[in-house]
Specification:
The complex is a heterodimer. Chain A is mainly alpha-helical. Chain A contains two helices and no strands. Chain B is built from 13 helices and four strands. In chain B, strand 3 and strand 4 form a beta hairpin. Classes of the chains: A mainly alpha, B mainly alpha. The interface between A and B is large, with 33 and 46 residues.
């Protein structure tokens, strides 16, 4: 799976650099938000709200 | 082992995940991106230097979104000030890059950048440690009031008669000369561009000691400013092919978890204690730069990596202890009410 993903990334980068830049920015934002929100939910379930 | 197609390197995925997590905890707690830890560490893991910087910037962008959101929930972000510092900082970054290009032309870039880096890390770190030492000598009553009382520098800056003026009600900064904010923002941006780092380690002390922001507010506002500057940084580094997307994503997963934990910890730890640990981190980073200057880059990287692991474990420990104490207190209160 990783090999085909790697090939796709390299092909995309060589095909359209600006588009690759936008994909990186979007992907970072999406992954960051989704992992962050999941962690927030887990922390709240554990009673760690950070508000004092 | 993960194969990174653009950098053409093989790295351990778990090591990347852990590195992201540790630096994420520190980032959420101190308000820094952690480039001074990640870039040398990635280099040790086998990333070529340019890819280490690009991948680091991309993952910092992702985690700064999470951190800004978390600090905004905690009401630790002054969006107006963060936006101004972030946007004006970009002008400074361009000026910093011009200075680097000039130094490169005269063949002096390496030593000068390292010396400026060392001076900044040691002076800021030692100043914060001295500040904490002075604070630790005070009585409990004095400690309570000291953080709310603005310093002489802050009073002088706030009293400057140089219009137009601007207020930041969220941070409690009223009618300050706009030129001060412009100057400080561009200066931080300049240092950022000059040293090739996010600038958080300079911006946080400036917000505390020059504008008089409470420590947690400085941390949150800085993370928001990092979000603005790094969104552009990620795009241009990705376009030039210097972002290893898989590596950045793996680090981001660890960092997004870590930064939430670090941000939550700021709600339980006193501002002065945050300054103390920040000072320790800066001095250690300074030692790492000295080691790199003495041609011991691997040792420098390991020093930063191990100190990041130890400090973030300490932060997690403080958070767990504070939460346990809070639970114990609320149980006691409930018991008192019943009896």
């Amino acid at each position: 799976m990783f090999e085909s993903l790697n090939e796709y990334i390299v092909a995309l980068y060589h095909l359209h650099k600006a588009q690759y830049g936008l994909i990186v920015v979007t992907l970072m934002a999406l992954v960051g938000i989704s992992v962050g929100l999941t962690t927030e939910v887990v922390l709240r379930l554990l009673g760690i709200r950070g508000e004092k | 082992m993960l194969h990174l197609p653009i950098a053409n390197a093989d790295v351990n995925g778990w090591a990347l995940l852990l590195l992201g997590f540790f630096v994420g905890v520190l980032g959420g707690f101190f308000g820094t991106g952690g480039a001074y830890i990640i870039t040398p560490s990635l280099h040790i893991f086998g990333f070529p230097m340019a890819f280490a910087i690009g991948t680091d910037i991309a993952h910092i962008f992702g985690k700064s979104i999470v951190a800004s959101f978390k600090h905004a929930l905690l009401r630790h972000v002054d969006f107006k000030l963060g936006l101004m510092m972030g946007l004006l900082g970009m002008i400074g970054v361009s000026l910093g890059k011009q200075a680097i290009l000039y130094l490169e032309k005269i063949g002096q870039v390496g030593p000068i950048v390292r010396i400026v880096y060392m001076v900044l890390l040691f002076s800021l770190g030692l100043f914060m440690l001295k500040d904490y030492y002075w604070y630790s000598k005070l009585s409990e009553v004095q400690k309570e009031s000291i953080e709310k009382k603005p310093s002489r520098v802050v009073l002088w800056i706030r009293g400057l008669k140089l219009g137009p003026y601007i207020s930041f009600p969220t941070s409690g900064v009223k009618d300050i000369s706009i030129w001060i904010v412009v100057f400080l923002s561009i200066s931080v941006g300049f240092i950022s561009g000059f040293l090739g780092v996010g600038g958080g380690f300079v911006r946080v002390p400036i917000l505390i000691y020059f504008l008089g922001l409470p420590t947690v507010m400085a941390v949150g506002t800085d993370l928001f400013a990092i979000l603005i500057t790094n969104s552009w940084g990620t795009y241009i580094y990705a376009m030039s092919g210097k972002v290893e997307i898989i590596g950045a994503l793996v680090m981001l997963v660890g960092a997004a978890v870590g930064i939430q934990i670090g941000s939550a910890a700021t709600g339980y730890v006193k501002g002065m204690k945050i300054r103390f640990y920040f000072g320790v981190t800066l001095v250690l980073a300074g030692v790492a730069v000295v080691l790199r200057h003495l041609l011991m880059p691997t040792l420098a990287g390991y020093l930063m990596l191990s100190s990041a692991a130890i400090l973030s474990s300490l932060i997690i420990f403080m958070l767990i202890r504070a939460v346990a104490e809070e639970r114990y207190r609320s149980k006691e209160e409930a018991y008192d009410k019943r009896t």
